[in-house]
Amino acid sequence: MNQINVPEIDNSAGIKLYSTSFRGTGGMIKVNAQDFKVSELLHDSVLSYYSKSKNDNHRFPLYLMQKTGVDSNHAIGEIKKLLGIRLRFLGIKDSKAISIQYCSTEQDLTIKEGKTHHTRLRLLGYTKESLRKSHLIGNEFQIVVRKMRNSNIMNFLDESASIPNFYGLQRFGSARLVTHLVGRQILKKDFAEAIRLLLCHTTNYDSKFSKEIRQKCEDSSNYRRVLKSIPRGMDIERKIIISSLNGKNHISSLRSLPINIRRLFIHAYQAYVFNQCVSTLIMNGENITSCLNKDLCFELENGLVLGKLKKFDLSMNPKKIVPATQLPGYALKKREGRFETAILRIMSDEGLYPRDFFVREMQELSVQGGFRQLPLMVSDIKYDNSKEIRFKLPIGAYATTFLRELMKPSNPIAAGF
Question: Of 60, 86, 355, 394, whose CB neighbour count within 10 A is largest?
């Protein structure tokens, strides 16, 4: 465990340590959109067997979408508005990047090529079934780190296998770091406080103008005035305010937001508890890269693909398994495993229990749980002193988790995180 001080914003997301002794390169990412490129990796069962033309066995359009300067949710909205196609995507990608993603639609209407303000769309062909999240196995990254103070990273590469699979700051709203706070209040059934946090929560990274708007939102009598000056980027806040002005209650106001946005709140709280759990165990001297008795583990099908979930026993080949844990949810079971024990303790300290993840008042936000591997599992790292680094990560892992260990930024937001 590295003794370099962790930035306060990382602490707030439950990331309380560095796992590598490398002192860091410093530098900045995402100076230009072209500096951060991410390409989705699909399972061979999709890419090896799609048809260039539509037929009885291949009915589902497979699109390749390239987007720049917009997140995945807004990109899909833009395509629907300008091209008339309702696409479904597999993974959420950041706005400050060039992203290459696979999408599908169940509409009869299809186009071969299309272009919007921030996206390019190309029809690759047709698949036997509509794309599912299980078809996405990971992402490949090409990232330029500018203004590095140290470009000799060989020692870091030797340590990279020890990096924990922390959820990155994007999961929590990056600079604003509010999504997990909203999620926690929804789970506590305090919907009024969830809305107050969405509208009013500020951090040191907010602009003076943003802080002024959020301060005015503390008093609902200011909503009509705020609505006249609120910037376009605050579309979530705008929807909440309009719903409130139309007399909607707190639950209905939250439901004015797209379902994928609302689910992010609960998932962000899951991520916060996971980060806290991993940080705590590592600080207590636990090794998260190898399995112990009573741990859960994934079998490895190949470099990126996680196979069956099993309970660890000594007969298993340690090179073909990876430690895992349950994630918070209403199906979280009490086990003797070290990770689940820590997760339940953290939730209890916050006054929450697995049953609280079943939200009767908003059942569409209920979360069963899930499983997550403990190490980051970065692979195929390529670096040639050109300041561009390439690597692959399995689905659900964050490139910024790898980069924060590489760069050790004192101010992650200023560094582009």
Answer: 394
- Do 227 and 281 lie in one domain? The reply is no
Residue among 119, 93, 116 at smallest CA distance from 36: 93
Longest dimension (CA), the chain: 67
Domain boundary among 207, 228, 257: 257
Q: How many other β-carbons are positioned within 10 Å of the β-carbon of residue 286?
A: 16
For the domain that residue 197 is a member of, what is the CATH number? 1.10.1510.30
Q: Quick one: angle between helices 259-283 and 338-349, nearest 10?
A: 110
Q: What is the CATH number of the domain that holds 126?
A: 3.30.70.3160
Tens-digit pLDDT profile for the chain (417 aa)?
A: 666 789 999 999 999 999 999 999 999 999 988 899 999 999 888 888 889 888 888 988 999 999 998 888 889 889 999 998 899 898 888 888 999 999 998 887 778 899 999 999 999 999 988 888 889 999 999 999 999 988 889 889 999 999 999 999 999 988 899 999 999 999 999 999 999 999 999 998 888 999 999 999 999 999 999 999 999 889 999 999 999 999 999 999 999 999 989 999 999 999 999 999 999 999 999 999 999 888 999 999 877 889 999 999 888 998 899 999 999 999 998 888 889 999 999 999 999 999 999 999 999 999 999 999 999 999 999 997 778 999 999 999 999 999 999 999 999 999 999
Kindly state whether residue 402 falls inside one of the protein's structural domains: no
- Domain count for the chain, please give it: 3
User: Can you spell out the DSSP letters for 48-78?
Assistant: TS-BSS-BTTB-EEEEEEEEESS-HHHHHHH
- Give the global pTM: 0.89
Name 76's Cβ contacts closer than 8 Å, sequence gap at least 6: 87, 88, 89, 103
Q: Which two tokens stand for residue 133?
A: 């999240």
Of 78, 111, 138, which closes a domain?
A: 138
- Nearest Cα to Cα of residue 127 among 50, 38, 23, 34: 50
Supply the range of the domain harboring residue 82: 42-138
Looking at 57-155, which runs of residues are DSSP E strands? 60-68, 88-89, 98-104, 113-115, 119-127, 136-144
Which helix (H) or strand (E) segment holds residue 36: the answer is: strand 36-42
Which one-letter DSSP state was computed for residue 395? T
